[in-house]
Amino acid sequence: LQESARSDSDSDVRGTAIKQLAKGYQDHPDTLPLLQESARSDTDSDVRGKAIQQLAQGYQDHPDTLPLLQEYARSDKDSDVRVTAIKQLAEGYKDHQDTLPLLQESARSDKDSDVRVTAIEQLAEGYQDHPDTLPILQESARSDTDSDVRGKAIQQLAQAWHDQPWLSQFLCDRTLHDPFDPDKDRDYERDDENYNPRQIALQAILKYYPNHSQSRSLLQDRAKHDPDPKLRKFAQKNLE
Question: pTM, whole model, 2 decimals?
């Protein structure tokens, strides 16, 4: 298993060997160093991610694990590894003083949209009551350059703060003014997953405020004027 984890030419084999070592030989003196080595230097991002996951779950209290997770959450060259490290930090080290600032930093400034989405999800789920969380999500919903991030932030805001009096107007504003342009996304027409933030905001209004005074006028406006044909169709369907 050790040989397979270190040197098999197939990354799936290396990943499986790592999981089996962590599962069956956690207390063997060679297992922890091997997992650390794989996390740091395996050429395949999936293998590095699996090693990080096993370290976080099996060696949470080892003094080297937290610094390694923090390092890879911030600076691994592969976004999937950063996503894995962020999730493990949020799950296993939620109350550590460095975890919240790292999540905030990733939500605001990681160069990859999937990492920013993950950080936003973890902030909303684990730190809803922290005074900095709401402003960060509002900022991401309004200003992130990526539509997936804006949509996820809108979704998390609606789920967690729909009982707040300001949210309905915030969603109305996003329904009308999010800058999503379907013509700039080649995959949008072929993708069944909706990620137009304007539609996400409108769906949230219909879900959480079914009797909202502006619902019908918003639907009429979007059915007639939205540049996204999918959203026009959605709005028209909800008017019928």
Answer: 0.92
